[in-house]
Design a protein that fits this description.
The structure holds 2 protein chains of 2 kinds.
Chain A lengths: L8 E4 L5 E6 L11 E6 L6 E4 L13 E6 L2 E6 L8 E8 L4 E3 L3 E5 L1
Chain B lengths: L2 E5 L2 E3 L5 E8 L8 E6 L5 E7 L6 E3 L7 E6 L4 E6 L8 E8 L3 E3 L2 E3 L2 E4 L3 E5 L2
The chains are: A mainly beta, B mainly beta.
């Protein structure tokens, strides 16, 4: 049950696009299309942004998109907005457990 | 509207016990797998435990195996986490989270965490 690896921080200017990577192994990200992404603002509960690698729940902006190649998944935020400043976590089902990523702080410059 | 409300958090001494509860509403609770996820102060998210709709399948993170017990009461729309032999490193906000249940195998449905409670703070300290 090792944590998935994410960059500690990513930043961008308003309107730009940023991508957050999430690297796992052949036992988690590489084995299942059950990668999800969560946004967490300070003092708040996490919020599901992407599920099953690239699907968006109802109400989530299409500025958020997900992808996966091999053992690495990615979240892209396009048209960056001030409200996107938050912590982001990836997660993967890993067969009888879930593994979260280490988390990425997104800063809007 | 889906709602998950945790209760039972508080301050406990090392070696002590605590029971968290999560009351669910706004959906058919008996049809969904449930999870507990925790977050230590200033740290990332950590999955803790999973329970299938019928309680027939239960999983734990290695860090809590043998000390924590997850259970559910479908008649009361509630899921619980009994925490024994608590350690300082168990200090965290504990979230109850509904499983998105996207994928099925013989042991149950799995997926992601589509709804979360507001969290319950557990502090283990002398």
């Amino acid at each position: 049950q090792s944590a998935l690896t994410q960059p500690a921080s990513v930043s961008g200017s308003p309107g730009q696009s940023i991508t957050i990577s999430c690297t796992g192994t052949s036992s988690d990200v590489g084995s299942y299309n059950l990668v999800s992404w969560y946004q967490q603002h300070p003092g708040k509960a996490p919020k599901l942004m992407i599920y099953e690698v690239s699907k968006r729940p109802s109400g989530i902006s299409n500025r958020f998109s997900g992808s996966k190649s091999g053992n690495t998944a990615a979240l892209t935020i396009s048209g960056l907005q001030a409200e996107d400043e938050a912590d982001y976590y990836c997660c993967s089902y890993a067969g009888s457990c879930y593994a979260f990523g280490t988390g990425t702080k997104v800063t809007v410059l | 509207e889906v709602q998950l409300v945790e209760s039972g958090g508080g301050l406990v001494q090392p070696g002590g016990s605590l029971r968290l509860s999560c009351a669910a509403s706004g959906f058919t609770f008996r049809n969904y797998e449930m999870n507990w996820v925790r977050q230590a102060p200033g740290k990332g998210l950590e999955w803790v435990s999973y329970i299938r709709t019928s309680s027939i399948t239960i999983y734990y993170a290695d860090s809590v195996k043998g000390r924590f017990t997850i259970s559910r009461d479908n008649a009361k729309n509630s899921v619980y986490l009994q925490m024994n032999s608590l350690r300082a490193e168990d200090t965290a906000v504990y979230y109850c989270a509904r499983d998105g249940s996207r994928y099925y195998d013989s042991n149950g449905y799995y997926g992601d965490f589509d709804y979360w409670g507001q969290g319950a703070l557990v502090t283990v300290s002398s």
